């Protein structure tokens, strides 16, 4: 089938900081909108989860960390305005550096840290398979642990998910469309995953 999925690109920013709030995705999205309200104009805009480690104080940001925004191609020049901005995340500071634009590449195995759902695992897997069929994607999947993001105001729960044995066109389509809701908070966004072991 021909691929008519909207074309997205990854806007990759160097970032520096120390400790972030445990539920930082909510504060991060709010801070990004403060500097670039245009991000809220397209439901396909997503924020790839930062690679962090957890300690008692919150989430630690490693050196050479990157902030990746998945955005429509026509929004790329606007994203440049975020370079060198300082983001306030509930008292923690995230300093953005230089921007690089990175086209999405087809990988046979993709991983989403959290695909949001209120359903139990069996129903969730059924829904994922139905959605993949709707997208014309033939692949295999591995459902990981149940995860959640929670603040006093909001709770998002779901499962981590690996989808493997993807053909190139299907891999790009899945990265463009994602699965489920809450892309602004890092949910349902697929990134390359080189192994299907140690799924968290």
Q: How would you characterize this protein structure?
A:
This protein is 20% helix and 37% strand. It is an alpha+beta fold. It folds into 2 domains: 8-103, Alpha-Beta Plaits; 110-192, 2-Layer Sandwich (Alpha-Beta Plaits), CATH 3.30.70. The chain has a 5-stranded antiparallel sheet. It has a 4-stranded antiparallel sheet with strand order 10-11-9-12, covered by helices on one side. The radius of gyration is 16 Å and the shape is globular.
**What is the residue-averaged pLDDT?**
90
Structural category: alpha+beta
> What CATH first level of the largest domain would be assigned?
Alpha Beta
- Count of alpha and pi helical runs: 4
Assign a percent range to the helix content.
10-25%
Report strand %.
35-45%
Terminus-to-terminus distance? 33 Å
Task: Jot down its keywords.
12 strands, 200 residues, four-stranded antiparallel β-sheet, 2 domains, five-stranded antiparallel β-sheet, globular, disordered C terminus, Alpha-Beta Plaits, alpha+beta
Write a short abstract of this structure.
With 200 residues, the protein is α+β, with helices and mostly antiparallel strands. The chain contains four helices and twelve strands; from the N terminus they run ββαββββαβββαββαβ. The termini are far apart.
Secondary-structure map:
Elements: E1 8-17, E2 19-20, H1 24-35, E3 46-48, E4 53-55, E5 58-60, E6 66-72, H2 76-79, E7 86-89, E8 92-103, E9 110-116, H3 121-134, E10 140-150, E11 155-164, H4 168-177, E12 191-192
Antiparallel strand pairs: 1-6, 1-8, 2-5, 3-6, 4-5, 7-8, 9-11, 9-12, 10-11
């Amino acid at each position: 089938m021909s691929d008519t999925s909207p074309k997205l690109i990854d806007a990759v920013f160097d970032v520096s900081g120390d400790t972030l709030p445990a539920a930082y995705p909510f504060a991060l999205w709010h801070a990004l909108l403060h500097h670039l309200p245009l991000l809220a104009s397209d439901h396909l805009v997503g924020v790839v989860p930062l690679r962090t480690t957890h300690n008692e104080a919150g989430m630690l940001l490693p050196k050479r960390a990157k902030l990746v925004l998945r955005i429509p191609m026509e929004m790329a020049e606007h994203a440049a305005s975020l370079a060198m901005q300082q983001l306030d995340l509930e008292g923690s500071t995230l300093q953005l550096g230089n921007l690089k634009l990175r086209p999405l590449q087809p990988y046979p195995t993709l991983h989403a840290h959290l695909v949001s759902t209120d359903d139990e695992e069996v129903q969730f897997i059924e829904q994922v398979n139905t959605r993949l069929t709707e997208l014309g994607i033939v692949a295999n999947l591995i459902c990981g642990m149940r995860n959640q993001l929670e603040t006093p105001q909001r709770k998002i729960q779901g499962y981590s998910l690996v989808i493997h044995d993807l053909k190139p066109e299907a891999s790009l389509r899945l990265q463009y469309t994602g699965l489920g809701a809450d892309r602004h908070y890092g949910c349902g966004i697929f990134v390359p995953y080189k192994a299907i072991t140690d799924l968290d």
